Amino acid sequence: MSYIILVVDDSPSMRKVVMKIIEMSGFPVNQFHEAGNGLEGLECCREQPVDLIVTDLNMPGMDGLTFIEQLHQDPDLRQIPVIIVSTEGRAEIVDEAKDLGVVEFINKPFQAETIAKTMYRMLGVENDVRNDGTSETPDF
Fold this sequence. Notes:
Layout: E1 3-8, H1 12-25, E2 29-35, H2 38-47, E3 52-55, H3 64-73, E4 82-86, H4 91-99, E5 104-107, H5 112-123, E6 128-129, E7 135-136
Parallel strand pairs: 1-2, 1-3, 3-4, 4-5
Antiparallel strand pairs: 6-7
């Protein structure tokens, strides 16, 4: 099985970096979707299926926390797991994200192995991520 991942970040180059790192991790991706802010992210989730969201916090238009709040208010979208990947690591921001239901917060820069393990855990599937950041595709 492979997954549909939405990457939300206002920097196109950072979205590409995140997607490349996820690919390098060996995590089974069927398709990536991209959004430049929370508004675009919500639109994407409403238009097509998404299995997991990786979002930044600091974005114009709609920031990451507002995006997550709006996502969780929508009964059709609230079950989508969200991972925050950000340089923002202040305790009050992390606490606010946790209050919104986010359980995974990864600080940039991050390792391929870290994102893969986190994604597997968020989706509740087994994995075999090796120390070199690659993985064996698990039997689903």
